[in-house]
Amino acid sequence: MSPAALARRHGGELARFLTVGALSALLNTLIIVALTELLAIDYLVSYAICFVMVNCFGFILNRRWSFALSDPAGRWEMARYYLIATFATLIAMSASRLMVLLGLPYGPAVFLSAGVLAPINYFAHRVFSFRIGAEN
Protein backbone atom coordinates (compact mmCIF):
# COMPACT_ATOMS: atom_id res chain seq x y z
CA MET A 1 0.00 0.00 0.00
CA SER A 2 1.37 3.43 -0.95
CA PRO A 3 2.08 6.08 1.70
CA ALA A 4 -0.79 8.18 0.30
CA ALA A 5 -3.22 5.24 0.58
CA LEU A 6 -2.01 4.55 4.12
CA ALA A 7 -2.54 8.20 5.05
CA ARG A 8 -6.08 8.16 3.65
CA ARG A 9 -6.90 4.89 5.39
CA HIS A 10 -5.36 5.65 8.78
CA GLY A 11 -5.06 9.45 8.77
CA GLY A 12 -7.74 10.14 11.37
CA GLU A 13 -6.48 7.39 13.63
CA LEU A 14 -2.90 8.65 13.31
CA ALA A 15 -4.00 12.24 13.99
CA ARG A 16 -5.82 11.13 17.15
CA PHE A 17 -2.78 9.07 18.24
CA LEU A 18 -0.47 12.06 17.68
CA THR A 19 -2.86 14.28 19.65
CA VAL A 20 -2.80 11.85 22.59
CA GLY A 21 0.97 11.61 22.21
CA ALA A 22 1.37 15.39 22.26
CA LEU A 23 -0.86 15.68 25.33
CA SER A 24 1.07 12.87 27.02
CA ALA A 25 4.42 14.47 26.14
CA LEU A 26 3.21 17.82 27.49
CA LEU A 27 1.90 16.22 30.69
CA ASN A 28 5.12 14.22 31.02
CA THR A 29 7.25 17.35 30.55
CA LEU A 30 5.19 19.38 33.05
CA ILE A 31 5.43 16.64 35.69
CA ILE A 32 9.17 16.19 35.13
CA VAL A 33 9.84 19.93 35.36
CA ALA A 34 7.62 20.26 38.45
CA LEU A 35 9.30 17.36 40.26
CA THR A 36 12.74 18.55 39.25
CA GLU A 37 12.26 22.23 40.06
CA LEU A 38 9.99 21.99 43.11
CA LEU A 39 11.40 18.87 44.75
CA ALA A 40 14.97 19.04 43.41
CA ILE A 41 14.74 15.53 41.94
CA ASP A 42 17.07 14.72 39.03
CA TYR A 43 15.12 15.02 35.78
CA LEU A 44 15.83 11.40 34.79
CA VAL A 45 14.46 10.18 38.14
CA SER A 46 11.45 12.47 37.63
CA TYR A 47 11.05 10.91 34.17
CA ALA A 48 10.83 7.45 35.72
CA ILE A 49 8.40 8.59 38.43
CA CYS A 50 5.80 9.94 36.01
CA PHE A 51 6.15 6.97 33.62
CA VAL A 52 3.31 4.88 35.09
CA MET A 53 0.89 7.76 35.48
CA VAL A 54 1.28 9.25 32.02
CA ASN A 55 1.28 5.89 30.25
CA CYS A 56 -1.94 4.88 31.99
CA PHE A 57 -3.50 8.10 30.64
CA GLY A 58 -2.10 7.27 27.17
CA PHE A 59 -3.32 3.68 27.25
CA ILE A 60 -6.89 4.65 28.08
CA LEU A 61 -7.10 7.49 25.52
CA ASN A 62 -5.36 5.57 22.75
CA ARG A 63 -7.49 2.49 23.26
CA ARG A 64 -10.82 4.32 23.41
CA TRP A 65 -10.25 7.33 21.18
CA SER A 66 -7.22 6.85 18.90
CA PHE A 67 -7.96 3.27 17.91
CA ALA A 68 -11.70 3.35 18.82
CA LEU A 69 -11.67 -0.03 20.56
CA SER A 70 -14.83 -0.61 22.54
CA ASP A 71 -14.49 -4.26 23.51
CA PRO A 72 -13.07 -5.01 26.96
CA ALA A 73 -9.29 -4.77 27.13
CA GLY A 74 -7.55 -8.05 26.62
CA ARG A 75 -5.77 -9.62 29.54
CA TRP A 76 -2.31 -8.82 28.21
CA GLU A 77 -3.12 -5.64 26.28
CA MET A 78 -1.94 -3.21 28.94
CA ALA A 79 1.17 -5.32 29.59
CA ARG A 80 2.05 -5.14 25.88
CA TYR A 81 1.36 -1.39 25.91
CA TYR A 82 3.69 -0.89 28.88
CA LEU A 83 6.35 -3.07 27.26
CA ILE A 84 6.39 -0.79 24.19
CA ALA A 85 6.23 2.27 26.46
CA THR A 86 9.18 0.99 28.51
CA PHE A 87 11.41 0.58 25.46
CA ALA A 88 10.27 3.95 24.08
CA THR A 89 10.92 5.64 27.44
CA LEU A 90 14.41 4.17 27.69
CA ILE A 91 15.20 5.43 24.20
CA ALA A 92 13.63 8.83 24.94
CA MET A 93 15.56 9.13 28.22
CA SER A 94 18.80 8.33 26.41
CA ALA A 95 18.01 10.83 23.64
CA SER A 96 17.07 13.55 26.13
CA ARG A 97 20.26 12.89 28.11
CA LEU A 98 22.30 13.29 24.92
CA MET A 99 20.49 16.53 24.06
CA VAL A 100 21.16 17.88 27.57
CA LEU A 101 24.84 16.96 27.25
CA LEU A 102 24.86 18.90 23.98
CA GLY A 103 23.50 21.97 25.76
CA LEU A 104 19.71 21.84 25.33
CA PRO A 105 17.72 22.50 28.54
CA TYR A 106 16.15 19.33 29.93
CA GLY A 107 12.51 20.48 29.46
CA PRO A 108 12.67 20.87 25.68
CA ALA A 109 14.92 17.80 25.46
CA VAL A 110 12.29 15.65 27.18
CA PHE A 111 9.52 16.98 24.93
CA LEU A 112 11.53 16.58 21.69
CA SER A 113 12.66 13.06 22.52
CA ALA A 114 9.02 11.98 22.81
CA GLY A 115 8.13 13.52 19.44
CA VAL A 116 10.89 11.68 17.62
CA LEU A 117 9.45 8.33 18.72
CA ALA A 118 5.81 9.09 17.83
CA PRO A 119 5.65 7.33 14.42
CA ILE A 120 7.38 4.22 15.76
CA ASN A 121 5.10 4.15 18.81
CA TYR A 122 2.01 4.45 16.60
CA PHE A 123 2.81 1.33 14.60
CA ALA A 124 4.12 -0.60 17.61
CA HIS A 125 0.98 0.07 19.65
CA ARG A 126 -1.35 -0.51 16.71
CA VAL A 127 0.16 -3.85 15.75
CA PHE A 128 1.60 -5.19 19.00
CA SER A 129 -0.23 -3.58 21.93
CA PHE A 130 -3.75 -3.55 20.50
CA ARG A 131 -3.29 -6.29 17.89
CA ILE A 132 -4.98 -4.35 15.10
CA GLY A 133 -4.21 -6.17 11.88
CA ALA A 134 -3.34 -4.80 8.46
CA GLU A 135 -6.90 -5.43 7.26
CA ASN A 136 -8.20 -2.72 9.64
TrEMBL record:
Pfam families: GtrA_DPMS_TM (PF04138). It is found in: Membrane. It comes from the Bacteria. InterPro entries: GtrA_CellWall_Glycosyl (IPR051401), GtrA_DPMS_TM (IPR007267). Residues 16-130 form the GtrA/DPMS transmembrane domain. It is a multi-pass membrane protein. The chain crosses the membrane at residues 14-35, 41-61, 81-100, 106-124. The keyword Cytoplasm does not apply. Keywords: Membrane, Transmembrane, Transmembrane helix. Belongs to the GtrA family. This is GtrA family protein. It comes from Novosphingobium flavum.
